[in-house]
Structure formats: structure tokens, C-alpha cells
Fold this protein.
Amino acid sequence: MVSHRVRRLQLGPHFVITIVATWERIIIVEYTTNEQNEKYMLQSVTNALRIIELLGEYNFLTLTEIAEKLELGKSSVFRLVATLESRGFVKKDKYGRCRLGMKFSYFGSVVLARMEILQASRPHLEELQRNVRETVHLAIWDDDWNIRFIDKIDGAIAFHMQSFVGLPKTCYSTATGKSMLAFMGDDFIRDFLDNVPLTPMTPHTITEPSKLLESLDEIRRSGYCLSVEEDELGLTCIGAPVIDTSQKPIAAISISGPTVRMTEHLSEYPTKVMDTARLISENLS
């Protein structure tokens, strides 16, 4: 499987940016123009793209460091970064340092979802659903620290749950989200905890960072996530990550059902979920 995701954005008749993203980092932005039409270029757009390029080379930079490296006025950098931040292209940590935002990973996720993961996973998800007869989900990492369900097969036995394809969902309370987060790497997880308040979805949601870290450790050891009523009361989910050739999670799958039914199958369902995730990974490689 090709680990780079490419998205080209046409910003005008003579201006194109190319975004190349991986789950580890943005490899990133190239912009092209027709030389004879350079008069159409906007300096503010050019400088914004220079900031994006610069942040693609560093983990974090302050506004002062950006201004110095690009030889721009600090007030101009402040306005440009504020604009990029408002659109999700730049994020600031609690110390005011800037980094590339999750919007770029989202672009990569969108490309991946449309081109590969849906086709590769659908037959395996259907087989899993036939075996367990519960609701099956496929999720990818989304912008702003959330996940997004991109496929869902309803269970054979009617059960209402609050999940919708295409809408974002919290990461830390869901089996798919924690399955991916656990394998994102220590730096990513620290950044996540610095930026995301662990707001309870139910009384069972993990809201203490230390407890969440313990949960992520267990997921890495076992290879799957068991979420018992952490996102919805009465709902238990079992999730596992879909790992690419670079050993990073590109998606996650889960089965979900009423706690009373799911607890009867905790000895068998985790293996079924992990086996399905592995088959999808192999199908993508």
C-alpha cells in the first residue's frame, strides 16, 4: 500500500497546492503557478503557504521563530497564523507554540477513504457482521482530534445507537478511537492530552489522563479495545486498529451491541475483530 496520501487543491486559475500526508507527519506542501501569470499571485496566500511549509519541517515553532525564519513582520505572521488556525491548518499548544493542524491528516484520511479503505474493507466487514450479527463500524482519524465513521453495517437484531456515517465522534470514549490513539506514538498521545479535555460522555467515560494512558497501554498489549458503556449507556464496543506497512493505524473497526449481549461473547469477539482488522491490513498492503 502506498503510505502517502496526495490531495491537490485548486485555489484559483493559476494557483495549486499539493498536500502529501502520512499518519506520522505532513511531508507536505508544494505550490505551483504559471510563471507568466505571477501577477495573479496574492502575497498573503504565498506567505501563508510559506508558514505551512516551514511548520512541515519542525514539530513546533513560536510566532517569533516563524517571523525570523521567514523574514516577515511579527504582526503579519500573527494574522496569517490566526487565519490558518481558524481553519484548522495550524494548531497552538498551551505554550503558544505552533504546529500543523490535523486538517492535513484529515485530507489524507479523505483520500484514503475514497480510494482504498472502503473497497478493501467492505467484504471483510460484511463477513464479520454475518458472524456476530451485531453492528459493525469502520472509522478513520478526523480533524481536531476526533474520529469519523466512514462505513457502518447495522446488526441483524434491532438496536438503536448514536452513530452516523460521515459525522465526527470523540476519540477517547470510543473503541475505534482508542484503538487508533493507542498506536499513534508517545508524542502524538502527549499532544492529544495537552489539547483535548476528557469530557465525560457517560459516567463510565475515562476522564483522567493517567487512567487513559493505562487503557492505551492495555490496548497495545492486547491488540484490541474493549469499551463498556464509555460512549453510550447500555452499549459495549470492541475495536481494533487497521495497521499499514509503516505500523501506523490508518483506520479502525469495531463491533457494537447491547452490553447484556456483548458480555456473553467477550471470549470470542475480540479475536474476530482483530482477525478482520488484520485481513483488511493485508488487503491494503
The chain has nine helices and eleven strands.
